[in-house]
Specification:
The complex is a heterodimer. Chain A is an alpha/beta fold. Chain A has two domains: 237 residues, Peroxisomal Thiolase, Chain A, domain 1 (3-Layer(aba) Sandwich), CATH 3.40.47.10; 149 residues, 3-Layer(aba) Sandwich (Peroxisomal Thiolase, Chain A, domain 1). Chain A is built from twelve helices and ten strands. A ten-stranded mixed beta sheet of chain A has the order 3-2-4-5-1-6-10-9-7-8, with helices on both faces. The longest helix of chain A is centred in the N-terminal third of the chain and has 17 residues. Chain B is of the alpha/beta class. Chain B has two domains: 218 residues, Peroxisomal Thiolase, Chain A, domain 1 (3-Layer(aba) Sandwich); 127 residues, Peroxisomal Thiolase, Chain A, domain 1 (3-Layer(aba) Sandwich). Helix content of chain B is 32%, strand content 20%. In chain B, the strands form two sheets. In chain B, strands 4-3-5-7-1-8-12-11-9-10 form a ten-stranded mixed beta sheet, with helices on both faces. Classes of the chains: A alpha/beta, B alpha/beta. The interface between A and B is large, with 67 and 68 residues.
Chain lengths: 402, 360
């Protein structure tokens, strides 16, 4: 029997709440975190909504008790808070008791501070506070989180655009299965920055209103920020400690669309292959999937391509599906982990969270998301999609354990 | 349960290395070496149009051209048309495109921006472009963790080959230097203030390293190929170790890997010419590997987050060619036999790594 990998802890900070409990409440109450921009200092302020974490960077510093350490980036801080919650939730007594790793993902790293640095640096290369640039690289936030939690074991960082943190979880599971480590905190963190907001704006895929994934009249995505982590543990460690299991990571798959640097293929090739690979690894049939947490960004291109791929996988028997980006916005490098955490909540509470604001089904496909909270559902297996630039497509399958 | 000592080795069946040296031609092995007064070793530019279609190459920044081309050279060398996975590591990713978009955004006050540099700033662009060129739908991962970037990609390769999920993997490590990044590194004291001769780097005791860059690719295979450079037997990464515990850590790694110190014929050390960083290697060099033939390479490629990929290229070429080029020898001894090479590198004394490479 291949080694099984269990989820024993979750942590999340996002626009719908500063911890898992708050996020759950927002999800159940159908409260979206998307609103007008209040924190990001940008000239696009009145043009687009955002899903900001409702804490200033100073408040985040306060939260982690690093008030004196002024060199932490918003990305690192969000990661520290969510990862701390995850290990708390998993009930670790001693972080290095077993071979414990940290795999984090990010797409912008310390860009929130690099933007400040460059403002002055561009005028005069002798100017700009170095403290604002030393944490630019993606690895910085991971090392900050590791130091904050006292993790001495294996650490690394993944950046594959919007599938990044689904890939962190996938790599974490592979490391456990290979016997390389016993448990891992895996997920991702991204803060909203002017860089990403402007970048997506140039691609003309930002909705001026709040995003409407999978709607015929969808007009783009809404950017969000946040961090989320799951704690993955090996079967052996779980048994040794008689640990409470939240869910099992039953399958995962990654495939490349190999179609275009940013656009998804019209046939949804990469999406189809990622789902197929994950199903194959889990040994589950499509009809055993009770809910799909779609990538569902709200762009014309993604939702159509993903919809076509879903129809290819599930045929006539499409299970209930929704894009919870209608709550959290698109949290980029954190999205895969944010949605994995939400999926664990669905499994544990038997509640499925809807695709807010959906009104009109898409013409080209015959499937449509549900729009109201579904309670009392027996959720055995959830399939969660995360697709990124560079055709990087990933699927996780999260299952209920007995 | 598996651990390092039961891991199957990875055969290196192809190489593609674009660096400040003439390393892209696998029929030559450091027979000419660049000697230059500098504090930044820049990669030698190839005629990229020979490797990538003209309309594509025009839009590409340097790291994308370097990465895609090195990947292509490597695949051709191994006669591989479709790897089962493409896995790379990069410390800063597509930093030139990142700086370009950031600069335009600030200068134009968030107006009149075009998407190309934003699109290409994504860290997995090189991976994506290679997949696109090959129409390769397989596993595609990019690791971005400072001195663990390349090592993480190699670890992923180990795990995929050992689990049987991949038979062949295109593995790469790459970083590019830009004028802005160099200016920042200068201010941080991470690079030397004044130019020095790269070949005389260790005679200079000023603060900082020579900045560098490169794109080194390896075709890894579960089984020996038509051509085999070497095999990678084991890998370890360790974060922020206590300096005095490093020798014991290395001994434990060798033991887990089933190798005695006597069996290590050459140690390749990641010395960068920065006295503060190089001091970390002292104990290992003078005690653990005393009188052991030692070599180094950062006078040839400079210091960067994925420089260890140049180190792995060097080890593979040494084992294939059966000789240690004069220019990389640290101790005058030329090892009689060359079967096992240990590479020990660290990046800024944060991210330490060990790679054990053997002859086929």
């Amino acid at each position: 029997m291949p080694q099984r990998v269990y989820i024993t802890g979750i942590g999340i900070v996002s626009s719908i709440g500063n911890d898992a409990g708050a996020a759950f409440t927002s999800l159940v109450e159908e409260k979206s975190g998307i609103a007008g921009i209040t924190l990001l200092d940008t000239s696009l302020k009145d043009k687009f909504p955002l899903a900001e974490v409702k804490m200033t960077t100073e408040e985040l510093l306060e939260n982690v008790g690093c008030g004196g350490k002024k060199n932490l980036t918003r990305t690192a801080l969000l990661g520290m808070i969510a990862a701390r919650e995850a290990i708390g939730s998993a009930g670790f007594d001693n972080i290095n008791e077993y071979r414990t790793g940290l795999i984090s993902a990010t797409t912008v790293g310390g860009m929130d501070r690099s933007e400040n640095f460059y403002k002055e640096f561009l005028g005069d290369p002798k100017k700009g506070h170095l403290i604002d640039i030393v944490n630019h690289d993606c690895g910085d936030s991971t090392e900050r989180i590791a130091d904050f939690l006292g993790i001495k074991g294996f650490i690394t960082t993944i950046s594959t655009a919007c599938s990044s943190s689904a890939n962190s979880i996938m790599f974490g599971a592979q490391l456990i299965k290979a016997g390389f480590i016993d448990r891992v905190i895996a997920g991702g963190t991204d803060s909203v920055t002017k860089f990403t907001l402007n970048g997506f704006n140039t691609l003309m895929i930002l909705d001026k209103n709040v995003c409407r994934p999978f709607d015929e009249n969808r007009a783009g995505l809404t950017l969000g920020e946040g961090a989320a982590y799951v704690v993955l543990e090996s079967e052996k460690v779980v048994k040794d400690q008689n640990k409470k299991i939240l869910a099992e990571l039953a399958g995962y798959g990654n495939a490349n669309d190999a179609y275009h640097q940013t656009a998804s293929s019209p046939e949804g090739t990469g999406a189809f292959l990622a789902m197929q690979n994950a199903l194959k690894l889990s040994g589950l049939k499509p009809e055993e999937i009770d809910y799909v947490n779609v990538h569902g960004t709200g762009t014309q291109n993604n939702d159509l391509s993903e919809g076509i791929a879903l129809q290819k996988i599930f045929g006539e028997k499409m299970p209930p599906f929704s894009s919870t980006k209608s709550y959290t916005g698109h949290t980029l490098g954190a999205a895969g982990a944010v949605e994995a955490v939400i999926s664990v909540m669905s499994i544990n509470h038997g509640i499925l969270f809807p695709n807010l604001r959906f009104e009109t089904p898409m013409k080209e496909i015959s499937i449509a998301p549900f729009t109201k909270v579904m309670r009392g559902v027996e959720v055995r297996n959830i399939l969660s999609n995360s697709f990124g630039f560079g055709g990087n497509n990933s699927t996780l399958i999260i299952s209920k354990t007995n | 349960m598996k651990n390092e000592n039961s891991m199957l080795p990875l055969y290196i069946t192809g190489l593609g290395n674009i660096s400040p040296q003439k390393t892209w031609d696998n029929s030559h092995f450091l027979d000419e070496v660049t000697s230059v007064e500098t504090n930044y070793l820049r990669c030698q530019d190839l005629n990229y149009k020979e490797y990538i279609a003209g309309d594509m190459v025009r839009r590409m920044s340097r790291i994308i051209k370097m990465g895609v081309t090195a990947g292509k050279i490597c695949l051709d060398d191994a006669e591989c048309t479709m790897p089962d996975a493409i896995i790379t590591g990069t410390g800063l990713g597509c930093i030139e495109d990142t700086e370009k978009f950031l600069t335009n955004m600030i200068r134009n006050n968030e107006e009149f921006l075009t998407p190309t540099s934003f699109i290409q700033s994504t860290h997995n662009t090189v991976n994506a472009q290679i997949a696109l060129l090959l129409k390769c739908h397989n596993y595609n991962f990019t690791y971005v963790h400072r001195g663990f970037s390349f090592e993480s990609a190699l670890l992923d390769s180990f795990i995929r080959i050992n689990s049987g999920e991949s038979g062949t993997i295109l593995l790469g490590g790459m970083d590019e230097m830009t004028l802005n990044t160099f200016a920042i590194l200068q201010r941080l004291g991470q690079t030397k203030r004044k130019p020095v001769n790269n070949l005389g780097l260790l005679k200079d005791h000023s603060r900082g390293a020579i900045a560098g860059e490169g794109a080194a690719f390896f075709l890894l295979s579960a089984n020996p190929g038509a051509k085999n450079y070497a095999k990678i037997e084991a890998l370890d990464t360790f974060y922020k170790p206590d300096t005095d515990k490093i020798p014991a850590h290395i001994s434990a790694f060798l033991e887990r890997s089933g190798k005695k110190i006597d069996e290590i014929d050459l140690v390749i050390i990641g010395m960068s010419g920065d006295p503060a960083n190089d001091k970390v290697y002292d104990d290992v060099r003078t005690h653990l590997f005393r009188e052991k033939p030692q070599a180094w390479f950062k006078h040839l490629c400079g210091e960067y987050q994925t420089a260890s990929s140049f180190g792995l290229w060097l080890a593979a070429m040494i084992l294939k060619n059966g000789q240690v080029p004069e220019t990389v020898r640290l101790e005058g001894v030329n090892p009689g036999k060359l079967r096992n090479i240990l590479i020990y590198n660290h990046y800024r004394n944060l991210d330490h790594s060990l790679m054990l490479v053997s002859s086929v």
